[in-house]
Design goal:
By secondary structure, the chain is α/β, with parallel strands linked by helices. It contains 12 helices and 12 strands.
């Protein structure tokens, strides 16, 4: 820094020109860097404020560092809060593709997700391809089971935009006099969210994540046919509709929680009957499981899943621990494993316990 720098006035054209030149020479650096280089020769009155104002006016910096509009959060739409029957106002989205087995060949299948805007219930349908005919058939199955929706809202997928026109043609067909009269008075309105704005459908995107996680855990490496996939999706649909919609109370007397099943069936979803605590076999199995609850150290004979980098979890290999190599303080750090490709050594931090060793 110069011992006697030049003093420059505030808001002077010469001062602005010097700041702009220094900012460009420093490759559009920030406030601190630009101000530091200026003070090598100049002392600008209110220098930080002048440098900050000049950087804000720099076209290049404004283009690179510009931020989107942050608007005030709007209230929920009336379609989501007004009392309606389940699936009267429905969101529609596609997920996939999933590989399914068709004899000796492998093909792609997709999932059509119907989400009720008000009750948060879901309905899942499997479609064999992305054509308009297959998607239209899935919508017809949905209407046959849950009734005709008043509003269908979806993203801007090209098949949905074609279906919007075909759906109106379908409703104009003369099926019966009664149905013709009802459909002419109540037509399905198809809405599309804004293009490239997936956060508008954030509530159904979160359900897609839940479905994908469940499929990865259930299928793993298994390749099922379309019927098997449909069965698994029905189970996942049941679990989603049994999820709580409200905060779980700490009151032991308040055991009932509101779920989408209450709106669909009037009762909660019970997948298994209540277990009798006096059942001796059940108590014995529970005690056996509790004996492994706090046993986290690897043991010889444990069946483990071997973690591999950049490999999906459902493709990790299984191994059996044959030998433990304790570290400096007697803690197992490395293990020798027997796998389908032979014996290997892996750190215990890369081993996931699947089945503990049977005690002698």
């Amino acid at each position: 820094m110069t011992k006697h720098p030049f003093i420059l006035p505030d808001k002077h054209p010469l001062t602005r020109a010097i700041i702009r030149r220094c900012h460009l020479r420093q490759l559009h650096s920030g406030i601190e860097t630009t101000l530091t280089m200026l003070r090598q020769r100049f002392w600008i009155l209110r220098g930080r404020r002048n440098v900050k104002g000049m950087i804000k006016k720099c076209p290049c910096c404004r283009r690179v560092g510009s931020k989107p509009f942050v608007l005030k959060m709007a209230p929920l739409l009336a379609d989501r809060i007004q009392p309606t029957r389940p699936f009267e106002n429905t969101d529609l989205n596609l997920a996939g593709p999933l590989l399914t087995r068709n004899g000796k060949t492998v093909k792609k299948s997709y999932i059509l997700i119907f989400t009720c805007m008000t009750t948060r219930a879901v309905h899942l349908e499997v479609v064999s391809d992305m054509t308009v005919d297959r998607v239209m058939e899935a919508i017809r199955r949905f209407i046959a089971r849950h009734g005709k929706p008043r509003i269908l809202q979806s993203d801007n997928f090209h098949s949905f935009k074609q279906l919007d026109q075909e759906l109106q043609l379908l409703l104009d067909k003369k099926m019966t006099d009664c149905l013709e009269k009802e459909l002419s008075a109540h037509r399905i309105q198809w809405k599309f969210i804004t293009e490239r704005a997936p956060w508008i459908g954030g509530y159904w995107e979160r359900l897609i994540r839940f479905i994908k996680n469940s499929l990865h855990k259930v299928l793993q490496k298994t390749l099922v046919d379309e019927v098997g996939l449909n069965t698994i999706l029905c189970d996942i649909e049941a679990r989603i509709n049994a999820r709580p919609l409200t905060y779980l109370s700490k009151d032991p007397k308040d055991t009932e929680v509101l779920t989408p099943y209450h709106f669909l069936t009037g009762t909660n979803f019970m997948d298994l009957p209540e277990v009798n605590p006096e059942d001796e076999e059940w108590v014995r199995k529970l005690q056996l499981l509790q004996s492994y609850e706090n046993n986290e150290a690897p043991q010889v004979g444990d069946i483990v899943l071997i973690e591999e980098c950049n490999v999906p979890r459902n493709k990790w290999n299984l191994g059996k621990i044959t030998e433990i190599y304790p570290g400096k303080y007697g803690i197992a750090r490395t293990a020798k494993l027997r796998t389908s490709i032979g014996f290997i050594k892996r750190p215990t931090a890369k081993l996931h316990l699947i089945e503990p060793a049977v005690p002698n």
